Amino acid sequence: MHVTRDKANEKPKIGVFVCHCGLNIGGVVDVQKVADFAATLPDVVFASANLYTCSQPGQEEIKKAIREQDLNRVVVASCTPRLHEPTFRAACEQSGLNPYLFEMANIREHCSWVHLHDKVGATQKAIDLVQMAVTRSRLLEAQVESSVPVIARALVIGGGVAGIQAALDLADSGFQVYLVERASSIGGRMAQIDKTFPTMDCSICILAPKMAEVGRHPNIKLFTLSEVEQVEGYVGNFKVRVKRKARYVTDDCTSCGDCVKECPQLAPDEFNEGLSTRRAIFISFAQAVPSSYVIDMDLCLNKEGIVACDKCLHACKARCIDFSQKGEELNLDVGAIIVATGVDVYDPSPLTEIGYRRFPNVITSLEFERLINAGGPSHGNLIRPSDQKVPKRVAFLQCIGSRSTRANKYCSNICCMNTIKDALLIKEHWPGTEIKVFYIDIRAFGKGFEDLFRRARREGVEFIRGIPGEIIQDPETHDLTLIGENMLLGEWYKYQVDMAILSVGIEPRRDSKHIQQILNLSTGKDGFFLEAHPKLRPVDTATSGIFLAGGAEGPKDIKDSVTQASAAASRAGILMTRGEVKVEAITARLDPEKCTGCGMCVEVCPYKALRKDEETGIVHIIEASCAGCGACAAECRFGAIQMRHYSDKQIYAQIASITREEPEKKIVAFCCNWCSYAGADFAGVSRIQYPPQVRIIRTMCSGRVSMDFIRFAFARGAGAVLVSGCHPADCHYINANMQTEKRVKRLWKEMQKKGLHTDRLQLAWVSAAEGRRFAGVIQKMADDLERISEKELQKTRAAYEKFLGKEP
Amino acid sequence: MSLKYAFFPGCVIPAKYPHFERATRAVAEGLGIELVDLPFSCCPPTSNMKLVHYDSWLALAVRNLCIAEEQGLNILTTCTGCVSTLKEANHIMQEKPNRRRKVNRILKKVGKQYEGTIEIKHLLDALYDDVGLDAIAEKCVYNLNMKIACHYGCHLFRPSYILYPEFLSPAHSYVPTSMEEIIEVLGGEPVDFMRRFLCCGYPLGANVDEDGSYEILREKLHYINASSAELISVACASCFEQFELGQVMIKKKHKETYGFPTLYISQLMGLAMGLEPKELGLKEHIHKVKKLLPRLEERRGEKRASI
Amino acid sequence: MSVKKVWTIFDRSRLYECYECSRCSGSCPATLTHHTLGPRKILLKCLQQGQESVIEDPAIWYCTTCMVCQDRCPQEINIPELLTGLRNIGAQKGNVPEKVKFAVEKIAKTGRSLLTFRVERERERYGLPPLQEIDTEEVSRILTETGFFKDLKIDR
Predict the structure, then answer these.
(1) Is the ipTM, as predicted for this complex, more than 0.85?
(2) Domain hosting residue B59, numbered range
(3) Which of A130, A274, B222, C39 falls 20 to 30 Å from A315 in CA-CA distance?
(4) What is the pTM of this model?
């Protein structure tokens, strides 16, 4: 790491590089004029116009200028910083300049691309943006990124195939792993399935060796009947509290099963989806890991150590039943967490027209798996629940509970292939069976999938497009009739079948809500955990150190779950191998002298990164937990909190720069880095045109925007102000945008009381994909600017006069 | 709970089946419901006016709502077509400010304005929600002792998000049970049959193709026949007409005899509450109820267990 | 205030939600008559061939307004509203069954959908009060304002 100049006390020597970007900028903006203007600004000692600044020669030019001109600030006016800020920062660093002394002006996505037909307006806007950037650059400070150590132990939550794979990969790499599973055995859904597609492998046969490996791996500590109760801390240093229920059976258990025969209590067997019963003492399935039995104390007649029924005790020759066992609380310190909590199936009871739970012979695909599995309630015989006869005519209904606003909107990924596999299984064992698959689309997208689909058709499985409108049953025989339209043939049918299997969709596990709250994870609109970036960071979450694997992240099959698990293990491994993690230097800093201990900042922090010390009454910041959203700084009325690299001074300077000339014709816009700024970028990428009155100030989060910024903008005479952030449920910083909403609403009330037009302050939630929406908002605001009277402007200036003087 | 309503009998019952109205009024009196007659016009129906001129349908429906609003009374209807129209018109006026403005502008010219102050209930809901099953049980002197197939009709509860918004299942639909529960209280046995919620086909016959509508009815009768039902109970005069005449036409065309007597819900209640079959107009029915009348069993002071 | 386009009653953008699952046509009672297109096909024709391909087709009047299609549509498309819109414009273009035209004319003229010549005697027999007087002038006035007479070319 070379030493970088921090030059805190030096006079700024700014270099400005204005990029043509070929014709992208140069075709609209008069780049030379902008560069010439930049050269006239105070403290600017070097200004040039380049063709492609991000290219090798372009970067060389920057490095050369830093050396030759002794620059201590660099401003590049080109594309969006979300694209090339890291590139140029690296160039600065290589020339010995601290990378935080670098600023960008977005004159492409936010200028040339959206004002294609207004060259004059675009050039003027580019000049303004460059001026804003130069003003800010004077106030930038050198920053040092701090690092925190990472504990070389990982926690995997969930013992399905994804959790198992992730645990094994990490353990094989040499890391200690804690695998926490809620049920009495690991295995998850894959243990319940009979065969897997497309190879028709026996599911438990390929899973059991992995399960056994987990059980005996020296680096894996397996906790079953356990749940995560609390997680505190931050990346590299998580403190996890796990509650572990007692098994009441020791490791001496030989799995002989004598106890089960004596137990008087009965309950539906969850592993068999309620199609059979189990006792209070039981093992969920033959290949369970751990292999000792377990007692369900909610069902057992003995409670709290009082032994009223001792039948199993007497039956057990190995003497391994111990009613005195107690649950325990475990405290684990880990560096990384992988969430692999898996899926539940959709319950189709609300779809009353298809008769699930009313007609015994309508079953779900998961119930079918248990029936056809040799270890299941019917020993692998596919029998009808109503009369235990083998069905001769079977129907599969696809998309039940998926692709529907009445249930789940998304496609559940696996149901098409699962049905094809099930159909082939039936044909294998009972070749004469008539099988009809009622589908809307057959999604056979993976490797070997289309082949399996072909095989099913060749074996005589009929594929009929069109889901039946309803299912009815014969009250005596319990045979089913499917009524619907065969749309490809254009005929209406009433097919009689013996059994109907509903291909139900999959949903995130209902009890994963609990994990979501503990870990502060975001979920997407579909309820699955949200990945950091859908293409480039598919197993990371927005919270550093927490990763996702398997069905918890989205519906997927075993192959994709295993792939994702290995990916998550690799990502966690990077963290733990490096042994330390760097924190971007945008975190909050608190001045204890100014802190009054009011605690407002503690309330608004989504990461619980602020703590009030009960003794001293002063708040302190846990840097490694701080994500840099700035909600605390905006909340503090005493100026005690400053955000590194996004300080109040810098933002006031930017507002002052925008409102220097003709402020009444300008829209001061605050956009958050992750959503609305990206949305504005997207408008540019899509070439959606809007008027050039807006000037955007980028913050990491809309929660950074304090009410005083807005008041200052109005005091300076700004025509309108836009505060824009992520949609309420999608805030990159979990929920910091709730503070944004509160503050804007308070300001509206204040403006109303002062007799000002409240629609001069707009609040817009714009996601990264909503370029058109952003353009629409700006268009409307620009139209409204025309209607503001001189009187209104004077009134506003007067109302907020006392906020002037904030600019440095 | 005030049991005073503006009575909206519709067009069909007062004109064609006055004995249903008679039964309803008698049952209402017995249960302490006060029915006020107001100069309502035709609702108008979703199966003709709405399909021909939507704006007129809405304006006339809201006019009827205004008439009730002016008296400050909730509406009680005996026809599912009416309840569907009035509830939907109310819903549109609440949810769509543009339409509300347009309709109020027209109504102003005849001195009326929609305020949105009243509720609309079908007889079944007024009985189930407002009167209550216990109160009905108290007034019953006979047990019906018949196996009854309940046909709700379509317009009573579809679309669910307008007609029963508080009772939607997670799948945004609603399965009514009020008629069956009332029949149980009356001492009857509601039987399940397949395709219970299939349309009877009446609007098709009334509008376009009678034979076609009887094909639809035949489907229903097939499944009612497969169950153990002896009698069909309806809550709508159009459904009644379809079952009454339809069974005759089907016999003529397909030589299939079903012969299910069809009774309007008020008539069944009247029977259980001790009214004379003559009063209830039972002899007007084509498919005679006479053979089932001996089933009526007197309740001997034993309190019927409430559901 | 006449309806010039189907799309003022039914939101056209909802048509794109349909992915042809066929639950609607599979549940539709009119299909038992073998004379219909079924809701799915009507929707598809509107989407791909425009409303003009169906509004003059008498088959659209086979819908019984039972609303089962909307109940079962996985995308909650308001198909009955589409059929309402199509029939409204169809009626203005002359695609309206005789019986329906007769019924609505009666409502416009008398305020009721049924003739009532024998009814007074029957009502008396059952001890019922006579039918309420309907303000037919008011009904007529409202229908003039809504454009009923004009759009359907009916004399007042």
Answers:
(1) yes
(2) 4-122
(3) A274
(4) 0.84
